[in-house]
Amino acid sequence: MTRRPTYPSDTSDEEWAILGPLIPAPRPGGRPARLARRDIVDAIFYVKRGGVSWRMLPADFPHWKTVYDYFQQWNKSGLWARVNDALRVQTREALGRNAVPTAGIVDSRSVKTSQKGGSEVTTLARKSTDEHII
Questions:
Q1: Which of 64, 67, 96, 131 would staple 54 via disulfide (CB 3.0–4.6 Å)?
Q2: Domain annotation covers residue 86
């Protein structure tokens, strides 16, 4: 039973057509899955995009603990990194670029350690001050 999209964080049909195949299907055998993967993903997006706690999921989503358990399981398996990589490849190919970036740019504003003397300056505060003890 799939909910109708009612929250801004819900995936649209077009988004789900891209994202759905990247989400693992329920394991074969055992008890059949009673929750739609799309509902679980929408609940995860609600928490992450809205910045709310897991326990604050609205009642029309699956139970917060179930959603959290799926998120943790998929996170440990590296699913979110694989999804990000696959979406990056699809986006770059749609723009006519190479699937994998061939160069990286480091902005000088993001690398400031040498300006103050690098590790020598940053470790001064951590040095022992035993000689100052009375």
A1: 64
A2: yes
Q: How do residues 8-19 score in pLDDT, each as one tens digit?
A: 999 999 999 999
* Residue 115 covered by a domain: no
Q: How far is CA 35 from CA 44, 70, 115, 132, in A?
A: 14, 11, 54, 64
Quick one: CA dihedral 74, 75, 80, 82, positive or negative?
negative
Give me the number of domains the chain comprises: 1
In the structure encoding, which two tokens stand for residue 91, read together? 């986006």
pLDDT digits (tens, 9 = 90+) for 13-50: 999 999 999 999 888 888 888 899 999 999 999 999 99
8 Å CB contact between 82 and 24: no
Structural domain for 19, as ranges: 13-94
In a domain, 27, yes or no: yes
Q: Which residue shows structure tokens 């109708």?
A: 4
Domain assignment present for residue 2? The answer is: no
